[in-house]
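Chains adopt folds. We examine one example:
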Amino acid sequence: MKYKIDVYIVDDHTLLNDGLTDVINRSDTMHVSRCFTTLGACRTALAERTPDVLLLDISMPDGDGTDFCQWVVGQYPKVRIVAVTIHDEYCVIQRMLESGVHGYVLKSAPLQELMTAIEQVWRGKRYISQTVQTIIDNSDHQAIVLTKPEQNILRLVCEGRSNSEIAQQLNLSSETIRWYRKRLLAKFGVRSTVCLVTMALEKGMI
């Protein structure tokens, strides 16, 4: 009998788990043996038996997938991990790569791309989808130019100031500060303040 790649899925969306399981189990080369909707359940199962490949969502109800990835890499180095996520922000991608993930695929990608990622990481290679690689390349090389007001607001955002506090300090309206925040998120190509601050620090802009 031909060997099949043993796959675990960790995602809190049951319908997605069922759909991926159905597709993967039709393959002649891989098989989903377990699905988990929490990191805790997966952690317990790993202590009993490890898979060849772990498909991991980053946003889980009981923890951060990035921290979990780092833990798995440390405890079970033979397990290959593919992040399967909606997160296309550079700072999230970078954190996952630094945590030791072996593959990164967006949930919007074709199913065949995920199948390719599973096989590639199982063979000991790293798989980064072309879409994700483009995000990395653009973030690494594209210069972000900020106006003086944007620089001031970014500095205060990184200090943890609220919109009202920033508005009061700069003598602007809260609505204006909200507009500047949206503009900063767009310039950095991120969707959250956490990612904005992370990237600003990484680029030495603070």
Remarks:
- The beta strands are 5-10, 30-36, 53-56, 59-60, 63-64, 80-85, 103-106, 127-128.
- The longest strand covers residues 30-36.
- The longest helix spans residues 174-188.
